[in-house]
Prior knowledge:
By secondary structure, chain A is mainly beta.
Amino acid sequence: QVQLQQSGPGLVKPSQTLSLTCAISGDSVSTNNGAWNWLRQSPSRGLEWLGRTYYKSKWYNEYAVSVKSRIAINADTSRNQFSLQLNSVTPEDTAVYYCAKGGEWRELYWGQGTLVTVSS
Amino acid sequence: DIVMTQSPLSLPVTPGEPASISCRSSQSLLNSNGYNYLDWYLQKPGQSPQLLISLGSNRASGVPDRFSGSGSGTDFTLKISGVEAEDVGVYYCVQALHTPLYTFGQGTKLEIK
């Protein structure tokens, strides 16, 4: 059973970059069966998928249109983890951020969540 | 974008009684492989969402058999045959077929009467 451990700062200043990491145990970030996702949850926007990375002979990334110009999701095979970077954040990016594995049928297995507040 | 609509949004239930949540999508979730890409999650208070049902009707590992999912195309239902106190939380339906890849319903808050 995959386990996901998130880490990263809980407070980010406006206009700066939000960075979170998700460490994987019980699976490999390079697996051909699955994808590695970032989502967020806020009272105003509900649950929102941000993007994913996955490996099928090469690495692929897919991002939600709402954040496509500001987001990067990268895999680190040496550390068996993946990361989220969200640039130019505003208070509207305040949310609980989740990493999640997408399984064979795209079902999601979630990390513990990280509350990130954007404030000066 | 695809829209997922759940009802009801609030669901008070007496322990032992059945409960039912409806989920409708604005586009069909039936893939050419014959599977409906509709999942159900429960978010218990203070926790991350956890998978209950995948592909419309497949119970996830460890999920009690009082939970069942049904439906196809655009109309889906989650049923709990007899609600227990540990079932409280917010239930979400999620589509995993169309772009954006995961679109969530508004959530249905189940509480014990």
